[in-house]
Structures are given as structure tokens and as C-alpha cells.
Specification:
The chain is α/β, with parallel strands linked by helices and 309 residues long. The chain is 24% helix and 19% strand. The chain contains eight helices and 15 strands. The chain has helices spanning 8-21, 38-46, 155-159, 172-182, 198-205, 221-228, 252-260, 272-281, and strands at 53-55, 73-78, 93-97, 107-109, 129-130, 133-134, 146-154, 169-170, 191-195, 216-217, 232-235, 264-267, 285-290, 300-302, 306-308. The strands form four sheets. It has a nine-stranded mixed β-sheet, with helices on both faces. A two-stranded antiparallel ribbon has the order 2-3. Helix 1 packs parallel to helix 6 (221-228) and helix 1 packs parallel to helix 7. The N and C termini lie far apart (45 Å).
């Protein structure tokens, strides 16, 4: 077993540690969103100086690709074309169907998304998930939006590479090194975004089966994030490395973040535009607004986070 691999017993011990560090009362349904205080929101808002807004989402893709075998389906239900001048009013109409938890489109995972040992976050019985959707812990928990200080840590930049290769891990040391290089620190209540360079690699080399091979966080790095009491975690991958480093658990970061820590996860974001603005302004923190759709029984939602400088 390599230094990066965790035995079943080691993973369970890590799970128990981060769960204890993130423990809340039995009635809690908001998880780490409780780490955002009103004062932190007003401080982040007061730091807006330029009035520049940047999307952190990838465009929704409707083309089949090795990393997107089940793409979104965009249909025009009415093209809205008037056949002749003077033919009167018409509307262009369309509909969208998508797999929220795919490996291409930007989305947020609700606290009901991960079932582990027969339960959801905070011990909620997994039978709360039925064919009708989630009766508890749905994405409706974030119906008022998530607003706070966003912080981007650019791991390829800290390592002086263009991207991390599939299978590579972001460690706690990587996060601390990026903090020092960028002159920032992960604080309580932060909406933390960790860049691995997925879209840069895809653009340069073409798509690949990212369900089987991708860069992500090492599970042990979640212990640092539990200590810092962040509110949200997002990445330009799906946060988990593939192949998994934890014996018997395919998505250890999802289990630790969502199930043990109560963190809403944002997967498959796009940081190219954000990095350009951060680099230009020499500023890696910003007001961030995350607004999921109001899907009352949804296990997640498409999402378009906005950074405001």
C-alpha cells in the first residue's frame, strides 16, 4: 500500500475524526452552511471594489464525449420564427433535460446526495430518499442562496505546472503551500474552491474518461478543512481523485465532505475566467454568490456561482 492509499480502518478513523470536528445537534439540516455568519457576508460584500462579476460555471454541454456520455438534451419546442412579415407575435421556446450529477456540467451536491452505512448526513435515515425525491436534506436547504467569501486556491500554479494529471492528489500540504504562495488563508465560513486544472488539460489534450481517471483532493486533506470550518467546497473536477485512494470507498471525499462534515460540494466548475481576473487583480478572495434551483426534493442542482470583485 502506497503512502497515498488508505486502508478501510484508516479511512474509518479519518471519517470519525472529521465527523467529530464537524458535529452539530441532531436536528441540524444545514450542515457547514452554519459556519457562515452574517458578519462574514457583510465583510465579503464590503470588499467589493471593482464591480466585476465572473462566472465559475462551465457552459452546459449537449454533445456526447468520453467524459460526458449522457449529456444534457436541449430541445427547441418552438423555434419562434415568423413565416412572413406582419405575421404577428411569436415566441422562441425550449426545454432542457440533464443528469445533474454527471461528470461534465457544473452542479451542487445536496446533503442528501451521499448514502453511507444506511444513513444520510447527521444520521438521517436513508429511507428519506424515495422515488419522489428527497424528503430531507434536499438542495432546498440552500434555497436562499449561499453567499460569503469565496477563496480560490490554484494548486497547479503553486506547483508551477499547467494542470494536475489524472490520478494526482491535492494534499493538505498543497493547500498550505498555495495559501502561502497566494498570500491568503482558509478561514471559517469560506466558500473554498480548489483548482486542479481539469479544463486546461481537456482543452489542450481533448476529453477523456474522467469517471475513471481524474485529479482531486486526497481524503486526508479534508481534516485540514474540518479544522478551518469552511462552509462549501468546490473544484473544477468532482473533488474526488480517481482511482480512489480509500479501500472499499469509491468517493471518499464525497463521503467525508457531505456525509461526515455536512459540506455542500460543487463539482465540475470552470476557473479559467476566474484565474485570469484573480491574476490581473492579484487577489484570490472575492464575494461569492451560489444560487441553486429550488428543487424541493432534489439531490442537487445545476449551478452558476458568481465571483464579484
Amino acid at each position: 500500500m502506497s503512502d497515498f492509499e488508505l486502508s478501510a480502518a484508516e479511512f474509518r478513523a479519518l471519517y470519525d475524526r472529521v465527523k467529530q470536528m464537524s458535529r452539530r445537534g441532531p436536528a441540524d439540516r444545514r450542515g457547514a452552511l452554519n459556519n457562515i455568519a452574517p458578519a462574514q457576508v457583510t465583510a465579503a460584500a464590503s470588499d467589493v471594489r471593482r464591480g466585476r462579476a465572473v462566472s465559475l460555471a462551465a457552459p452546459i454541454d449537449s454533445e456526447v464525449a468520453p467524459d460526458n456520455p449522457d449529456p444534457a438534451v436541449h430541445q427547441m419546442t418552438h423555434p419562434g420564427i415568423s413565416l412572413a412579415p406582419g405575421s404577428g407575435l411569436s415566441f422562441a421556446l425550449d426545454r432542457l433535460a440533464m443528469n445533474i450529477h454527471g461528470n461534465a456540467d457544473s452542479h451542487i451536491d445536496a446533503l442528501c446526495h451521499v448514502i453511507f452505512d444506511g444513513t444520510l448526513y447527521n444520521g438521517v435515515d436513508a429511507r428519506a430518499i424515495t422515488a419522489a425525491g428527497a424528503a430531507e436534506l434536499s438542495v432546498e436547504v440552500a434555497r436562499d442562496g449561499i453567499v460569503g467569501r469565496g477563496l480560490l486556491l490554484d494548486i497547479p500554479r503553486a506547483r508551477r505546472v499547467s494542470w494536475l494529471e489524472p490520478g494526482d492528489h491535492v494534499t493538505a500540504d498543497d493547500l498550505i503551500t498555495a495559501e502561502a504562495a497566494q498570500g491568503v488563508r482558509i478561514e471559517e465560513g469560506d466558500l473554498l474552491f480548489v483548482r486542479v486544472g481539469h479544463s486546461s488539460r481537456r482543452r489542450a489534450l481533448g476529453p477523456w474518461d474522467s469517471a475513471s481517471a481524474r485529479a482531486g483532493l486526497h481524503p486526508v486533506a479534508l481534516e485540514l478543512l474540518a479544522e478551518r470550518r469552511i462552509a462549501v467546497l468546490g473544484s473544477d473536477g468532482n473533488n474526488d481523485t480517481a482511482p480512489s485512494t480509500a479501500e472499499g470507498v469509491d468517493f471518499p471525499v464525497h463521503v467525508l465532505a457531505i456525509h461526515a462534515m455536512g459540506l455542500h460540494l460543487l463539482d465540475w466548475l470552470q476557473f479559467d475566467d476566474l484565474v485570469a481576473v484573480c491574476d490581473e487583480l492579484d487577489r484570490w478572495s472575492f464575494l461569492c454568490v451560489i444560487v441553486p434551483l429550488r428543487l424541493r426534493a432534489g439531490t442537487g442542482s445545476p449551478v452558476n456561482p458568481i465571483a464579484i470583485f
